[in-house]
Fold:
Amino acid sequence: MSPSTPAYPTELSPTENELPDLRAASPDAEIAAALVRTAGRLAARMRSSGLLVEEKTSISDVVSDADKAAEALIVDRLTGIRPDDGVLGEEGAAAPGRRTWVIDPVDGTYNFVSGLPAWCSALALTDGPEGAGATVLGAIYQATTDELWLGGPHLPPSLNGVPLPALADRELHEIAITTYLHPPRLLDPRLRDGLVRAIAGAASVRIIGSGSIELAAVAAGRLGVWLHADPPLWDWLPGSALVLGVGGVTDIFEYGGHRWHVAGPPTALAQAKAAVLGLG
Structure:
């Protein structure tokens, strides 16, 4: 990050920098909320101080020392209070367990290191090993807006403690679709054409660059349908839990050698899927 890149207004007092006194008896939702909030604030502070950034698979697929520090913080605390649970993290954390905490310490890292505000820290808890099984809950914290999303299929989702309303059913042409396609993948015609067919049926398209923020926006009715091909678990599970919790639907299907993930209102989701498959 260059010295001229603007810092975010996320100065925190020393007491705010500390994790709450989480214990083994603390509810899963309380733990998830505290961990993503603290990880997000840690990342924001580190960003304000200057980052070390490395490429992973491409110039736009990057990792910073804040990603690594935030993931380490989450894993360290979970090891102490949920020792029987496993972890699966974007930056390499992996440990087996009866249940699994899926960790995205900084989702939207390219935005994060570029000075764009659309990034977050995200967690999902599943009831099986290695991220398998049903998703219990998702937690997403966007430090730049101080928004904490929390909920799941059996935990009514909320934004900063305020319950989200039930998701209204809509048709695709009435709402925005949110997606992403890494530029080199535009050369894959079945991937490109399926995505274009779905976009063409929507009211608008938004590419934000953070899967969890996009899915949280779908759950809140800010965006309409989320459609991505081959997303990793940590980009999908935290936010899809919120969508399910507000009465939306999710689907995973195969087309063109890719595994497509879609979430949103039932009618619009069915229309987006049909468009990808070339059926409508």
Remarks:
- Residues 83 and 102 are 15 Å apart (CA to CA).
- Confidence is low (pLDDT under 50) at residues 1-17.
- The longest strand covers residues 100-107.
- The helical segments are 28-49, 65-81, 109-114, 189-200, 211-219, 233-245, 266-276.
